[in-house]
Design goal:
The chain is α+β, with helices and mostly antiparallel strands. 37% of the residues lie in helices and 25% in strands. The protein has two domains: 166 residues, 2-Layer Sandwich (Ribosomal Protein S5, domain 2), CATH 3.30.230; 140 residues, GHMP kinase, C-terminal domain (Alpha-Beta Plaits). A hairpin with a 4-residue loop joins strand 2 and strand 3. It binds ligand 2P0.
Length: 336
């Protein structure tokens, strides 16, 4: 990437959507640069958004990060400051920044808030620093803040290319958000506080799960199946492979030492609920990230019926229904 010295310009606001992985990212080959062990595929989730405003100012003596109205300290602040440091290095400046961010969904509940969070931060901060970068470059910078965020730069269906030979790892769009209309019904359950971060859990899996390598061996086939399912708009193939890959990722997590079990009894209840939907000839599959919550994948004609049955039989804390959404956008309305 050739960057000329940038000119710190102005306050910038970006909106990014989270993404739901159909083939999961689980394990890094390079912890520092955040290069994954495997390619992953996701779709961008329209209903889950982070809005972030960044302003660099000579008057600031340190970076500030306000999330959902609360000034952040400790780890959340450090991750933002570290990411701003990468952007400052590229733009050859040492000016500090003020960062305001708002999520429209529960933070750190396994709903990929770090994906939309770092995508919005990277887009707003690079623009505010006067850098003009394309999406491939943005996805590579964002990846270093949080791996899965690189997939949120594009709308629709997106693949994160591990590119293990060249240390250049970035996202590409497989199909836009209008190509294949599916629904992601996010079932928000009571989630116990996570004992270990996703980052540490992945690291532990590589070191201790006897199934880590076996999972990697299944991925080329499953990635090819998902790419084909997207191309042919084959929902049952997409859903069944995504559900299998979710179970494969969780098998690796569960067989780590100590075991990483992200599910609660309610998670398993919803898994059985989805199996029962299929017996009723309702096309539905689940996928789960690092939390108790589930994403029920379906097609538009079954959305209403599934939400109705969830309300009757499960009573979750919240149901958020989403379709595939767009990539990151810079907007003119600022948070401060
Ligand atoms: C995914 N997850 O593909 C997988 C499935 C969680 C389970 O990407 O360490 O927060 O910051 O790169 O991006 C969550 O991982 O981890 C994630 P870091 P990130 O969506």
């Amino acid at each position: 990437m050739i960057i000329l010295k940038s000119v710190i310009t102005t306050k910038t606001t970006a909106i990014a959507h989270s993404n739901t992985a159909l083939i999961k990212y689980w394990g890094k080959r390079d912890e520092e640069l955040i290069i994954p062990m495997n390619n992953s595929i996701s779709f961008t989730t329209e209903a889950l958004t982070t809005t972030t405003t960044v302003e660099f100012s000579e008057e600031l003596t340190k970076d500030n990060f306000i999330l959902n109205g609360t000034e952040q300290t400790g780890k959340p602040l450090k991750r933002v400051v570290d990411h701003l440091a990468i952007i400052r290095e590229i733009s050859q400046t040492n000016v500090k920044a003020k960062v305001y961010s708002e999520n429209n969904f529960p933070t750190a509940a396994g709903l990929a808030s770090s994906a939309s969070g770092f995508a919005a931060l990277t887009s707003a901060a690079t623009n505010a620093a006067g850098l003009k970068l394309d999406k491939k470059e943005l996805s590579m910078i964002s990846r270093r803040g949080s791996g899965s965020s690189c997939r949120s730069f594009y709308g629709g269906y997106v693949e994160w290319i591990a590119n293990n030979e060249q240390n250049e790892s970035y996202a590409i769009q497989l199909a836009d958000e209008n190509w294949f209309d599916i629904r992601d019904i996010v079932v928000v359950l009571k989630t116990p506080e996570r004992k270990m971060s996703t980052r540490d859990a992945m690291k532990l899996s590589i070191k201790t799960s006897p199934f880590f390598k076996s999972r990697l061996d299944t991925l080329d086939t499953n990635l090819a199946k998902i790419r084909l399912a997207i191309k042919e708009r084959d929902f049952n193939s997409l859903g069944s492979v995504a559900e299998m890959d979710c179970l494969s990722m969780h098998s690796v997590a569960i067989t780590s030492n100590p075991p990483q079990i992200f599910w609660t009894p309610d998670t398993v209840k919803v898994m059985h609920f989805v199996e029962n939907l299929r017996e009723e000839k309702i096309d539905a599959y689940y996928t789960i990230d690092t939390g108790a919550n589930l994403h029920i994948l379906t097609i538009p004609k079954f959305e209403h019926e599934i939400v109705k049955q969830l309300e009757e039989k499960i009573l979750p804390e919240k149901i958020i229904s989403s379709k595939p959404g767009p990539g990151v956008k810079v907007v003119n309305e600022h948070l401060f």
